[in-house]
Amino acid sequence: MVTVADFNGKVKPDWCPACGNFAQLSALKAVLAELGIEPHNTVVVSGIGCSSNLPEFINAYGFHGLHGRLLPVASAIKWANPKLTVIGYGGDGDGFFEGTQHFYHTAKRNVDITYIVSDNQIFGLTTGQASPTSELGFKSKTTPEGNIEKPINPLAFGLAAGATFVARGFSGDPKHLNDIIKKGIQHRGFSFIDVFSPCVTFNKYNTYDYFRKKVYKYEAKDLTDFSAAYNAVQEWGEKIPIGIFYQKQEPTYIDRDPVAAKISLVESEPVKLTEESVEEFL
User: How wide is the angle at C-alpha 105 spanned by C-alphas 102 and 111, nearest 5°?
Assistant: First the structure.
């Protein structure tokens, strides 16, 4: 029997009190325990940022990588040992600025991992600069007169890139968030979950109250309808949908690889190099 306590890390989170990351950490531990996934079969890979410290706060294998580079590492881990449950976790700056190219290619390849983005519309670790998801007119240290760039639409980007599971949650609704993360982990393929995660210290605009007044639970009639999902994720204003927008079963990257589909790297016999075999490559 796996319990939530099994995932309690030895290091206590140092996030600001009421940070949205707490809800995501709690949801992840609760879901992993509910699904009976043991800590030694779980790997959490992160980049750089406030949210990316999460591998330190959960009892599982973890890798704290470079800014925006978590997805290549997570992909390699999954390819080496497909039996592991691999979770990618980072912020909106990490994923949609430095990591945009990796996000695209990981989604396109349909790598069987779950990618959770703690989206607070700001760079929190560096104390409050505009991020790729900051709204037009948003005032910050780098945009004192207001942000003049249109924000990226993470869900539309994920859909266009080829993600086979696309969803959005809100840290202020933990029960709903738990359900989304659970279904994302259960999905076989690239699961992308963007989570509204208010930064209570540096973002005084996109607050819990801001989202509570706007978000509503989206119910898809057909989760395999790409056009309906793409249209739904365009909604932004007085009402903002949260929920699962798209889910479709397609072959994963490993399924399409003739070698990896037969045997994983950790199960294969190690290559023994001899002087003669090395000379063949020269």
Answer: 105
Measured in whole angstroms, the distance separating CA 39 from the mean position of its chain's CA atoms is: 19
Query: Residue 10 has what pLDDT?
Result: 93
User: Please, are residues 124 and 202 in contact by the beta-carbon 8 Å criterion?
Assistant: yes
Measure the CA–CA gap between 106 and 85, rounded to whole angstroms.
16
Separation of first and last alpha carbons in the chain: 53
Mean residue pLDDT of the chain comes to: 94
Cα(188)–Cα(41) distance, integer angstroms: 16
Distance, in Å, from the CA atom of 149 to the CA atom of 137, rounded to the nearest integer, reads 8
Per-residue pLDDT tens for 115-173? 999 999 999 989 999 999 999 999 999 999 999 999 999 999 999 999 999 999 999 99
Q: Which of 56, 45, 54, 29 is closest to 79 using CA atoms?
A: 45
> Model confidence over 28-54: pLDDT tens digits?
999 999 999 999 999 999 999 999 999
Range list of H helices, the chain = 21-34, 70-80, 92-93, 100-109, 154-161, 174-186, 208-214, 226-232, 253-256, 275-279
Q: Is the pTM of this model over 0.85?
A: yes
Which residues, 6+ apart, have CB-to-CB distance to 186 below 8 Å? Answer: 35
Q: What backbone phi and psi angles, to 5 degrees, belong to 106? A: -70, -40
Q: How far apart are CA 169 and CA 181, in angstroms?
A: 9
Q: How far is CA 118 from CA 156, 171, 250, in A?
A: 17, 9, 26
Q: Identify the pLDDT of residue 266.
A: 80
Domain ranges of the chain: 4-256
Class of domain 4-256: alpha beta
The Cα–Cα gap between 67 and 65 comes to: 7
